[in-house]
Design goal:
The protein folds into 3 domains: 5-57, RNA-binding S4 domain (Structural Genomics Hypothetical 15.5 Kd Protein In mrcA-pckA Intergenic Region, Chain A), CATH 3.10.290; 66-129 and 217-242, Alpha-Beta Plaits (2-Layer Sandwich); 134-211, Alpha-Beta Plaits (2-Layer Sandwich), CATH 3.30.70.1560. The strands form 4 sheets. Strands 7, 8, 9, 10, 13, 14, 15, 16 and 17 form a 9-stranded mixed β-sheet that branches. The chain has a 4-stranded antiparallel β-sheet with strand order 3-2-5-6, with no helix packed on it. The chain is elongated, with a radius of gyration of 20 Å. α1 crosses α2. β2 and β3 (36-37) form a beta hairpin. It contains 6 helices and 17 strands. The chain is an alpha+beta fold. It has helices at 7-13, 19-27, 119-126, 146-154, 191-198, 229-242, and strands at residues 5-6, 31-33, 36-37, 43-44, 51-53, 56-57, 66-71, 100-102, 110-116, 134-141, 157-158, 161-162, 167-174, 177-184, 202-211, 214-215, 224-226.
């Protein structure tokens, strides 16, 4: 007798959504198995039971796709929006399979966003315990002093909890504005903006330039490219280290890969 698998795991494995998003879909009553709504923890037999989301049958995805997207400001990191705002899904309409965001990047920010149809990959990279480094180029106003840099590096209390240590260094400084490079190892909502606000700084521009070994490079706004196998392996390796070395095998092979070199990031050490 075939073994049942949890529905949220199947949704992730079949490329419908990340594990966390799949749980949200189930909680919202949008997922059915054999025509009946399922609850969190319910199981199904892949290949035998009929799985559907919003009444649309779901089939197993054979080809895995991994993309780097340059998200412009003004786009929300979702596949659809009830307020009819511009969504990142509009930027990947030419991709032949359905892909969804790995993690998030708020509407007013720009830069590198990963997208995939591999739910297990998305779960590993975006999981809070993975601590995959995310590098940002942040323009703040008016000026930054040493005390603010030290507090940003060691941790700032936001939403009642202190942020994890970050790497911070000054890239450019002129009258009325400072450009910082900030490397975060956690993924709290609007973390940099809230840190700066707590320190009396205004964020004029926020751009994510790297996620782990994947760099934005010269990728134009609104455009996307395929990740190389080396980038995929590097992301999984970094996520595995963050989880204390726990890492399962994921096959990064997919069709039509092209290698494109990104622009190397700054090499100087940040303030701790």
């Amino acid at each position: 007798m075939a073994e049942k698998e949890r529905v949220q795991k199947v949704l992730a494995a079949w490329g419908v959504a990340s594990r966390r998003k799949a749980e949200e879909l189930i909680a919202q009553g949008r997922v059915t198995v054999n025509g009946r709504p399922v609850k969190l923890g319910d199981g199904m037999v892949p290949g035998k039971d009929l799985l559907a989301v919003d009444g649309e049958p779901v089939a197993q995805v054979r080809e895995k796709v991994y993309l780097a997207l340059h998200k412009p400001r003004g786009f929300v990191t979702t596949l659809r929006d009830e307020r009819d705002r511009k969504c990142v899904a509009q930027l990947v309409e030419d991709v032949p399979v359905r892909v969804y965001p790995v993690g998030r990047l708020d509407k007013d920010s720009e830069g590198l966003l990963l997208m995939t149809n591999d739910g297990e990959f998305a779960n590993k990279v975006a999981h809070p315990k993975s601590h995959v480094a995310k590098t940002y180029r942040v323009t703040v106003r008016p000026q930054v002093n040493e005390e603010q840099l030290t507090r940003m590096s060691t941790g700032v209390v936001i939403d009642g909890r202190k942020t994890a240590p970050a790497k911070v260094r000054v890239l450019q400084q002129e009258q009325g504005r400072v450009v910082l490079e900030i490397v975060l190892y956690e993924g709290r909502n609007r973390e940099i903006r809230k840190m700066c606000e707590a320190l009396g700084l205004e964020v004029a521009r926020l751009k994510r330039v790297a996620i782990g070994p994947v760099r934005l490079g010269m990728l134009q706004q609104g455009k996307h490219r395929e990740l190389t196998k080396e980038e995929i392996r590097g992301l999984l390796a970094e996520a595995g280290k963050g989880k204390g070395g726990e890492q399962r095998d994921t096959d990064p092979s997919h069709g039509g890969q092209r290698k494109r070199a990104g622009t190397a990031g700054p090499g100087r050490r940040g303030r701790r």
